């Protein structure tokens, strides 16, 4: 009886060792050997291992599996429509914008990162070229036209309506001048200049009136003349006549004293002084967008992400196809070295593979136990 128990124990141990070792070898033969072995021209069976032998087919099947069943347009659309994903994406994107703005980069420094140097000079050069071309076009189109053809009717009506007020202002300023001591001195000087070459007449006038008395008598008359309605009417007619003459002139005649180079110089200088591009490009981006920062964070970011999500959802199939995801996965798996591939698979399924080995040992031990009992009963 004791010998029978030892026999059963021995057969259990031998069966467990054989079962466990067999499964261990079978698992190893999934990967090993990595290459084919020959004896002469005869290929040793089971060389190379299963996965090395079928690596290309495995890579192709995994690529089809991922594209056909895992990373599909439907799964992408489902992920993009999840509220948690949207919220996390908005939080991440807003954080990135905030982190970027806190760096204190100027617009010029940002453009330099894209290899765009001296942006203000380039833009000024572009604007100068546009001004020169536009000036040439305007000159060709308008230089031979009369001013009245160029000015809008509203402008001409506005100028004509302001002529009486302009005449009033001229008369008022003239009255103020001749009413002042400076004006009185000017009247005296004019009288002296007019009469000093008249010989006896000048001496006679000086004898009766004197210089100051004559100027005092003329000054009120000048002011009275300026205040008379006829003076305003005459001045209005003069201004209107001159304005009509100006309108009948060609624009080229009016500006014929100005050289093109000078006109272009002042035009370019005016634009440059007005725009101030140098200061604009040296300001920090955070400062430039400060008036719009709340709008960007509260409205722009959600909208741009929503639009991007809709675009990706609608074009996900096309994107996967254009990126050739299946080919990328296949090429990557094919490029894996066999030791690396073996390490990757074992690291993923290590526990399961160990359990398979133990299961083989358990089954082998069970078979040994049954065989031992059978042998014992039949001996």
Automatic annotation (TrEMBL):
Location of this chain's protein in the cell: Cell membrane
Transmembrane stretches, start-end: 6-31, 353-377
Coiled-coil portions: none
Keywords per UniProt: Membrane, Transmembrane, Transmembrane helix
Superkingdom of origin organism: Bacteria
GO cellular component: plasma membrane
InterPro entries tied to this protein: DUF445, UCP032178
Annotated family: Belongs to the UPF0754 family.
Cited PANTHER family: UPF0754 MEMBRANE PROTEIN YHEB
Name of the protein in its database record: DUF445 domain-containing protein
């Amino acid at each position: 009886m004791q010998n029978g128990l030892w026999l059963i124990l021995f057969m259990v141990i031998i069966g467990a060792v054989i079962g466990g070792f067999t499964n261990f070898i079978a698992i190893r033969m999934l990967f090993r050997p990595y290459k084919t072995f020959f004896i002469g021209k005869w290929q040793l069976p089971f060389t190379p291992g299963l996965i090395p032998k079928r690596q290309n087919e495995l890579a192709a099947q995994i690529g089809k599996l991922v594209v056909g069943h895992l990373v599909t347009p439907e799964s992408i659309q489902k992920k993009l429509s999840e509220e948690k994903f949207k919220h996390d994406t908005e939080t991440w994107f807003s954080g990135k914008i905030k982190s970027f703005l806190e760096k204190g980069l100027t617009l010029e420094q940002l453009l330099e990162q894209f290899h765009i140097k001296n942006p203000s000079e380039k833009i000024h050069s572009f604007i100068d070229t546009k001004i020169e071309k536009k000036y040439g076009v305007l000159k060709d189109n308008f230089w031979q036209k009369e001013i009245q053809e160029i000015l809008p009717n509203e402008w001409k009506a506005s100028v004509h309506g302001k002529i009486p007020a302009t005449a009033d202002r001229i008369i008022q300023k003239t009255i103020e001048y001749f009413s002042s001591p400076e004006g009185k001195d000017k009247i005296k000087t004019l009288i002296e200049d007019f009469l000093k070459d008249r010989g006896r007449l000048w001496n006679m006038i000086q004898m009766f009136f004197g210089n100051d008395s004559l100027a005092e008598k003329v000054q009120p008359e000048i002011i009275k003349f300026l205040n008379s309605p006829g003076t305003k009417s005459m001045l209005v007619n003069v201004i209107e006549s001159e304005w009509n003459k100006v309108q009948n002139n060609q624009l080229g005649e009016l500006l014929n004293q100005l050289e093109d180079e000078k006109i272009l110089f002042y035009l370019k200088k005016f634009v440059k002084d007005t725009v101030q591009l140098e200061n604009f490009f040296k300001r920090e981006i955070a400062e430039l967008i400060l008036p719009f920062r709340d709008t960007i964070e509260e409205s722009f970011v959600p909208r741009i992400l929503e639009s991007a999500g809709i675009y990706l959802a609608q074009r996900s199939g096309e994107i996967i196809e254009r990126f050739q995801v299946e080919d990328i996965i296949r090429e990557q798996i094919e490029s894996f070295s066999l030791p690396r591939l073996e390490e990757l698979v074992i690291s993923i399924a290590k526990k399961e593979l160990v359990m398979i080995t133990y299961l083989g040992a358990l089954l082998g031990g069970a078979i040994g136990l049954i065989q031992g009992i059978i042998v014992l009963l039949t001996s």
